[in-house]
Amino acid sequence: MWSGFIRQNEEALRRVQGERLGKDMTKRQKKSLTRIIIAAVLMIILKFLPVEGWLKFVLYMVPYLVVGYDILRKAFKGILNKQVFDENFLMAVATIGAIALGNYKEGVSVMLFYQIGELFQSYAVGKSRRNISDLMDIRPDYANIEKDGELEQVDPDEVEVGTIIVVQPGEKVPIDGVIEEGSSTLNTSALTGESVPREAAAGDEVISGCINLTGLLKIRTTKEFGESTVSKILDLVENSSSKKSRSENFISKFARYYTPAVCYGALALAILPPLVRMFAFALAPEWGDWIYRALTFLVISCPCALVISIPLSFFAGIGGASHEGVLVKGSNYLETMAQTKYVVFDKTGTMTQGVFEVNGVHHNTMPEEQLLEYAALAECSSSHPISKSLQKAYGKQINRDRVTEIEELSGKGVTAKVDGIPVAAGNAKLMKYLNVEYSECEEVGTIVHVAVNGKYAGHILISDKLKPHAKEAIRDLKKAGITKTVMLTGDMKRVADKVAEELGIGRNSTREALSILHGMGMIERVQGSGNYISKDAGGSIHRILRMMLALGTITGQEIEEFRCMMEKAVCLDLLERGLSEEQQTYFEKLLQGMEAAFTEEFLELDKTFHEQLICATGNPLFILLLESVSKMYQEQIACVLQQADENGRGELLTQHRAIYNHLMQKDKEAMLEAIDRHYIR
């Protein structure tokens, strides 16, 4: 009976015996392994001992209790708590029944191999948790507060909003805030995935979890530790298992009905056939045989493998992703990700290494080594990746005593005096600013133009390198069913085109995207300040939707379906965060107003109800999208609402109240059904 099980788990059993597994196991898992080994050894010994009767029973109870006492205890607690039907109860009934029938070996063996399976499950879960924990190295251990001229380390939870904290080079920023004093370079790769360090100075906002690389920073906190970026990320990952996939939810519901059905089925199998044999056919009941068959049915029908396997596979997937540096919020998102058809990439630090190197010196009027020396010395005070690449290419110790009058020109470059000679190093804007004629570079990359003593001395080509496995990754994604890959970058067009061509990937420039959005009236450009979402962005979306509807690109039904889907997203968000007392009072008054309203008033209150649901989220994306789509939807159903009689308005009011009540009761399934009933006509 057990030969197949043993063969299937031979490899796993060898791993249990391996050194690596032993190192990764917890104390509890090692204890469980010890119990399994002791029980297995005792079973082998008992097989060769010629014992019978009560002595045999007592001896076999020793390995049984060694390996299974915790299962029996859990089953007993489940009975006391009126939560009877679980895998512990099934295993307890099956093994005790086998022992009661005199099948001691089978009873102990069932418990033994069940515990082996539990050990492998525990190890897999533990490994996934460790992968997640390793990723969570962004958690700060302390915050520095200056008192009487000395730094005092305190728990980040104890730091109040508005407190000045000190972050030294090499330390993590513990709490979100604004830099009050100092400038530095920040490593944000753990949070953003961006490998290129970010420059930060007084007045800049910084988020917790990033690492201070160079200068000392004094930061005024703007959030409590519990509300900071790093805390929210940690909470997101640690609670990822709470967001279950559809298959997990189905299995959980299935197990609630299946397990009792199996138990009652086994009971019927043990009792009914003997009774039928006795009273219908006047035969011997054979109670022992039928009880044994019932117990066998109980063991082989146990749904624990089914109930465990699906959640475990998702958890292992989340843990495996964490090991690779990918955060997954929950198994529902992992399930959705399997349907992905389009993948959009950043360029720098994602498809490329984010490590800039000097790849050429062009149009130089002096030796390359001398040009690099001037550029490296002029850039010696900067920690920018471009400056570091110049210093690396120079390859000698930087003597800062040779450099004076260093001045950084924002967005242009630097000027300085090297050995008393004026040197300028930067982009084309710097050359224009200094009225120096320069030569364009035909190759792709970042160009550092150098002027020495007011005359053009040449330019240095600096370019990023592709990651070694980037091409392979794109190829594997396409093999896996991804229909389109796109690289979105703010880099120069020719740089982006070259990288996209080498990778075999589509390219969209951020500049192009902004231009398109500007043309659509969704982006406003403010000279010298940047791009902003237009105040009339919602109106722009509305105009686009009307055009699409007129052209037949979309239908009224599709608008209605989208509106329904988005309202579900809004209500699910509100269900998680909850409504404030003020918001609850507002909705109650709104619903009361709808009860007494006439057609015109009812139409306006109906619109207000849905608008306030959106606004309650505080999510600007929800508000922007749904305001524009709702406008279209209201146009679609206006005539229906205007023609609605008292009964029709009463039905609509009931639907609105059902959505609100289920939201307040946190009844997810009922709330979603109520939204469907409201929108499906």
Structure characterization notes:
- The protein is of the alpha+beta class and 681 residues long.
- Strands 2-1-3-9-4-7 form a six-stranded antiparallel beta sheet, with no helix packed on it. A six-stranded antiparallel beta sheet has the order 11-16-15-14-13-12. A three-stranded antiparallel beta sheet has the order 6-5-8, with no helix packed on it.
- Strand 19 and strand 20 (530-533) form a beta hairpin.
- The model is unreliable at 1-23 (pLDDT under 50).
Mean pLDDT: 77
Main beta sheet: 6 strands, antiparallel
Radius of gyration: 35 Å
Strand order of the largest sheet: 2-1-3-9-4-7
Q: Any descriptors?
A:
extended; 20 strands; 26 helices; Calcium-transporting ATPase, cytoplasmic domain N; 681 residues; six-stranded antiparallel beta sheet; alpha+beta; disordered N terminus; 5 domains; Calcium-transporting ATPase, cytoplasmic transduction domain A
Q: Which SSEs are present, and which pair or pack?
A:
Blueprint: H1 3-8, H2 10-17, H3 19-24, H4 27-47, H5 53-80, H6 87-100, H7 104-135, E1 143-147, E2 150-154, E3 164-167, E4 177-181, E5 184-187, H8 189-192, E6 198-200, E7 205-206, E8 211-212, E9 217-221, H9 229-238, H10 246-279, H11 287-300, H12 304-323, H13 331-337, E10 342-345, E11 352-362, H14 368-378, H15 385-394, E12 403-409, E13 413-418, E14 421-426, H16 428-433, E15 446-452, E16 455-466, H17 470-479, E17 484-489, H18 493-503, E18 506-509, H19 510-519, E19 523-526, E20 530-533, H20 537-551, H21 556-577, H22 581-596, H23 599-617, H24 620-642, H25 646-664, H26 668-679
Parallel strand pairs: 10-17, 17-18
Antiparallel strand pairs: 1-2, 1-3, 3-9, 4-7, 4-9, 5-6, 5-8, 11-16, 12-13, 13-14, 14-15, 15-16, 19-20
Helix pairs in contact: 4-5, 4-7, 5-6, 5-7, 6-7, 6-11, 7-12, 10-11, 10-12, 14-15, 20-24, 21-23, 21-24, 21-26, 22-23, 22-25, 23-24, 25-26
